[in-house]
Amino acid sequence: EDDTLQAQACRPDWKEFVQHRAPGRFQCSQCFHEWSSAKVHILFHMCRCQGWGMIWMRIFRQECRRCSKPRLEDPEFSLETIESILHNLVVKILQYFYNEPVQPSDLLEVMVDTPVAGPHDSAHCEACQLGIC
């Protein structure tokens, strides 16, 4: 995991995949407020060299809207969400490094498994602040 990864800034011979709109749950480490978001983004940078591979990942965080000086909080994901994200990552690895033909339908839509109330709070979303969301 690397919180410094930037979208569209891969090293030479590296590939990028962004999992958009994964549902996640957050809890503020200061006031313990909890919220859900259907727009958690995960950035992957990956390479394959001499038979081995490496993947770097950045999970974009969100801030609590109730705190005056909020911290960026990490999301938690359901097992089903993690499985779908990993499926999509494997599909992209097959496409990028093994030249497997991939159709848009091969990627799983990550389903929202918990109720999400209200619109996306762009002002408190790290991915929005960085222009990814």
Output the structural class. Answer: alpha+beta
> Mind describing the biggest β-sheet?
3 strands, antiparallel
Overall mean confidence score, pLDDT: 91
Q: Give the neighbour order of strands across the main sheet.
A: 1-2-3
Beta-strand content = 25-35%
**Roughly what percent helix?**
10-25%
End-to-end C-alpha gap: 19 Å
Protein name: RTP3 protein
GO molecular function: olfactory receptor binding; zinc ion binding
Keywords: Membrane, Metal-binding, Transmembrane, Transmembrane helix, Zinc, Zinc-finger
Domain 3CxxC-type: 21-131
Quick gist of this model?
By secondary structure, this protein is an alpha+beta fold. The chain has helices at residues 79-98, 126-129, and strands at residues 15-27, 34-49, 52-59, 62-63, 72-73. Strand 2 (34-49) and strand 3 form a beta hairpin.
